[in-house]
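Contributing: when you submit paired examples, paste them exactly as shown. First protein:
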Amino acid sequence: MNQDNQNIYRTTPARTGKMMVIMLGICIVGGAIFFSMWDYWTSAPAPVVAQMAGESEHDLQPGVATGKHMEVSLKFVESSDFRTLAFNALPGEEGHNPVINANVGDEIVFNVENAGKSFHAFGVTADAEGFAGIVPSSAINSASNPLKPGMTGTSEFIPSKEGTYYYICTVPGHREQGMVGEIIVGAAQAGEAPKAAAAPTGVHHDFNVDFVESSDFRTLAFNALPGEEGHNPEFRVNSGDEVTFSTVNKGKSFHAFGIVSDPENFNNVLWNSAIAAATNPLKPGQDGSVTFTAGAPGTYYYICTVPGHALQGMQGSFIVE
């Protein structure tokens, strides 16, 4: 009588124990990595992700500049035990979290320095709590790409409505530890109505802005990445001046160019200032140029008009005086 013989594989208790020790070690190391990055996992989603998800706490549109310009200098500071955070000075010291008073349409330019030993980021919000709802033009870096100690940044905020706004550190938890100050905005002053476009002045400007990207494609910019010299330069012209922008796509993605009044609205390109378009963008290595006449005085933005790219960093200020 024939019987089928089958091989039966077994392991020893010692081998099983070693395998369990290895699996336990993997779990411990993975858990340590996960919880060491807890601030990152719980931070706000990237602006482009929030926009695609339809997330909107409020509708803060950039105001129209009235001609009044304010420069505000702020420094991130920390107590020696890192439990108390603030701007300019710690609680009880002169200059602690200064209140900024402005009117609708005033251009507030923030010059921010990380004078601490931790990582920080900056922005203006109308929300009384948390770190969401940041006005895009006011942001300096982000929780996922913060200012390192000693780094600086510049941004601007033009309030479009009366009320109380807040400048904060946008790294989760830092506002709650004290990095928050008020911006009190009053009504626009008499005689500060937006001005009409001037007649052609005969003055011509040539500007160059090239599309660049970080190696992981998460950060986009013009000319240089954040923290590098030449990053998203500000341009100032007079109403009626003729302006030529030239650009080269030095990245590996597709890009397009235009001047807009709202960096979140990439469909509203002004003054026939477009170079290519989201539907027909510049491919890697391609270049283009455009010439137009600057319109009414105000603060505008040059951006990449491919959806989401301005929110990832491809935006700079274009000031018409």
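Second protein:
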Amino acid sequence: METLYAQIANLGFPIAVSIYLLVRIENKLENLTISINELAKAIGNVK
């Protein structure tokens, strides 16, 4: 039983950290995509 708890502790923490980081980065990537699209439109209007 202790082995099972150790495996959960060893795997659960990295999984939780990965999910947290993916959720945080997803929002920033979406904002970056919007900014890149706006920049492309602005460059297109200059020509």
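If you have annotations for the second protein, write them as plain sentences, like these:
The mean pLDDT is 91.
The helical segments are 2-46.
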